[in-house]
Amino acid sequence: MDCLFCKIIAGEIPSAKVFENEKVFAFRDINPQAPVHVLIVPRAHIACADEITASNSEAVAAVFEAVPAVAAAEGLKNGYRIVNNCGADACQSVKHIHFHLLGGKQLSEKMD
Ligand code: AMP
Ligand code: ZN
Questions:
Q1: Per-residue model confidence (pLDDT) at position 67
Q2: Residue whose CA is closest, atom 17 of ligand 1?
Q3: Torsion angle (degrees, nearest 10) of CA 9, 37, 72, 5
Q4: Residue with CA closest to ligand 1 atom 20
Q5: Ligand 2 centroid to 109 CA: how many Å?
Q6: Which of 2, 8, 42, 81 is exposed most, by the fewest CB atoms within 10 A?
C-alpha cells in the first residue's frame, strides 16, 4: 500500500519519533502549527474516521490511551488540543488516520 504514514511507521521514511508501543506510533509534524505538534497514529492502517468500526476501534482507543504519556513527555502541563481531519472538507491530506496533538502555547478559541 502506498501510504506515507505506513512507511514512516515501518521506518522506510525517517521521522522524529516521540513515542511508540505495540499499537501506536507518534512523531513530530514536519510542518508544525504550534510549539508542540505531534501526530499520533495507529500502526493499523485506517484511512480516516469514517472507516472506524467495531472491528478496528481498538487501534483508535490505543491512540487515546497513549495521549497522556505523549502529552507529559512533551511537557504539556497546561493543556493541549487533539485534532482529527477527515475527508476533503477538513483538508485531510494523508489518508492514514492520525490525531494532531497541539500545544505549548495558548491556542485559538476558533477551531475552523
Ligand atoms: P492532515 O492535513 O490532517 O491530513 O495532516 C497531515 C499532516 O502530516 C500535516 O500536518 C503535515 O504537515 C504532516 N506531514 C506530512 N508529511 C509528513 C512527514 N513526512 N513527516 C511528518 N509529518 C508530515
Ligand atoms: Zn497507512
A1: 98
A2: 30
A3: -10
A4: 30
A5: 31
A6: 2
| pLDDT at residue number 1 | 77
Rounded mean pLDDT, 35-48: 98
* Mean pLDDT rounded to a whole number for the chain: 98
Do residues 99 and 5 lie in contact, with contact meaning Cβ atoms separated by under 8 Å? Answer: no
Give whole-number Cα distances, 92 to 68, 86, 98, 100, in Å. 24, 5, 10, 11
Whether 53 lines ligand 1, by a CB cut-off of 6 Å, is no
Name the grid cell of 12. 522506510
The whole-angstrom separation of Cα 93 and Cα 15 is: 17
Any idea which ligand is nearest the CA of 94? 1
Structure confidence by residue, pLDDT tens digits, 79-106? 999 999 999 999 999 999 999 999 999 9
Pairwise CA distance, residues 34 & 59, whole Å: 26
